[in-house]
Automatic annotation (TrEMBL):
One cellular component (GO) term of this entry: plasma membrane
EC supergroup of this enzyme: transferase
Keyword Cell division: yes
Full protein name: Probable peptidoglycan glycosyltransferase FtsW
Lineage: Bacteria, Pseudomonadati, Pseudomonadota, Gammaproteobacteria, Vibrionales
Gene Ontology MF terms in the entry: lipid-linked peptidoglycan transporter activity; peptidoglycan glycosyltransferase activity
Compartments it resides in: Cell inner membrane; Cell membrane
Length: 403
């Protein structure tokens, strides 16, 4: 009896101190993702209770909803983890079709918040099709780069131009909401994936210049976007008008100093800073945890990005091209969206309404990004399995059944 108990204790202990290479999945990636979700729950709870109490009379209304979102994210990502990578590649075009349908539906019956129609009411939560479109485009694009690899490298109107047309169609639907931030994230990630696939430098530069010109044009033709840019350049010129949100965010950063005001002690979240628990949760985090907390959270996020890039690199080295391109795409997506969210809160870029990965309040964003992490774990698992046992799909599927 004692020997059996000791064996179980040793088995549990080995789970914590053994290196990720001894397992068939990356344990560090799991802990990083869970750590970010826990930080998100704590910060959403802290940042949301004033607005939650005002709107519902319950200080922890948004916290309770975020817990539900976390539960859904865990369930859906667990299911996604069981799907072989080849299935994602085979059905990528159907995911893209679903995204197009959802984006058209949201334009017809979408819920409008602050002048933007980006959500489809589903009762339990509001579905944001833009989040589905991001992941769907990257999955489709990874599969396209595998199927048309030689064309992408050699021709423009053959292999290189086709995904740009698909992106342009998605961008048109997204701009109808309007949602320029998601379009920019998708464009940058698309650039990165094409570059990794070996697109010609002249094509890449030409596309990048065209993309920058298009974004500038979209900003110029919309007065509210121009106001965002001008308020970003000098928010103190109109601190109670167009620059109000940014000035309040900057004051939160200033109050944080080195060690912060302490968890729960933010002043700006007391109805001064709009969207404190969603787009600007990082400003509340900076005020309560200070510079040290900001650095630690950013290190955690970019550790996840580094894991994604490393997994993508290893997949390419093993000639698992789809997993490699998708791993890089997810890494670029998470990195750029983090830079935009943090940059907007710190006054380095104009506000774009993008969430902080795995931290900000929002069911669609949290669930889709949890699925993306599960896909990374699946890519890593299949790479480890191939390195250990060889490329035998039946053995991989049998291992899934045993789990």
């Amino acid at each position: 009896m004692e020997s059996a108990v000791k064996e179980r204790i040793q088995r549990v202990a080995s789970w914590f101190h053994s290196t990720p290479q001894l397992a068939l999945y990356d344990r560090q990636l799991v802990w990083i993702a869970i750590g970010l979700m826990v930080v998100g729950l704590v910060m959403v709870t802290s940042a949301s209770f004033p607005v939650s109490y005002r709107l519902t009379g319950q200080p922890f209304h948004f916290m309770a909803r975020h817990v539900v979102f976390l539960g859904l994210a865990m369930i859906v990502s667990t299911v996604a983890l069981q799907v072989p990578i080849k299935k994602w590649m085979q059905h990528g075009h159907w995911l893209l079709v679903i995204s197009f349908v959802l984006l058209m539906v949201v334009l017809l019956v979408g819920k409008s918040v602050n002048g933007a129609s980006r959500w489809i009411p589903l009762g339990l939560f509001n579905l944001q099709p833009a989040e589905v479109a991001k992941l769907s485009l990257f999955i489709y694009m990874a599969g396209y780069l595998v199927r048309k690899h030689s064309e992408v490298r050699q021709t423009f109107f053959g292999g290189f131009f086709k995904p740009i047309v698909i992106f342009a169609l998605l961008a048109g639907l997204l701009l109808g909401q309007p949602d320029l931030g998601t379009v920019v994230v998708m464009l940058v990630t698309l650039f990165g994936m094409l570059f990794i696939a070996g697109a010609k430098l002249i094509q890449f530069i030409g596309l990048m210049v065209a993309g920058i010109v298009a974004v500038i044009g979209l900003i110029i033709i919309e007065p509210y976007r121009m106001r965002r840019v001008t308020s970003f350049l000098d928010p103190w010129q109109d601190p109670f008008g167009s620059g109000y949100q940014l000035t309040q965010s900057l004051m939160a950063f200033g109050r944080g100093e080195w060690t912060g005001q302490g968890l729960g002690n933010s002043i700006q979240k007391l109805e001064y800073l709009p969207e404190a628990h969603t787009d600007f949760v990082f400003a509340v985090l900076a005020e309560e945890l200070g510079f040290i907390g900001v650095v630690l959270i950013l290190l955690l996020i970019f550790s996840l990005v580094g894991k994604a890039i490393f997994i993508g690199k290893r997949a390419l080295e093993q000639e698992q091209m789809f997993g490699g391109y998708l791993g890089f795409g997810i890494g670029i997506w998470f990195a750029f969206q983090t830079l935009v969210n943090v940059g907007a809160a710190a006054g380095m870029v104009p506000t774009k309404g993008l969430t902080l990965p795995l931290i900000s309040y929002g069911g669609s964003s949290l669930i889709i990004m949890a699925i993306a992490v599960s896909i990374l774990l699946r890519i890593d698992f299949e790479c480890r399995w191939v390195a250990e046992h060889g490329d035998d799909e039946q053995q991989i599927e049998q291992e899934d059944e045993e789990k």
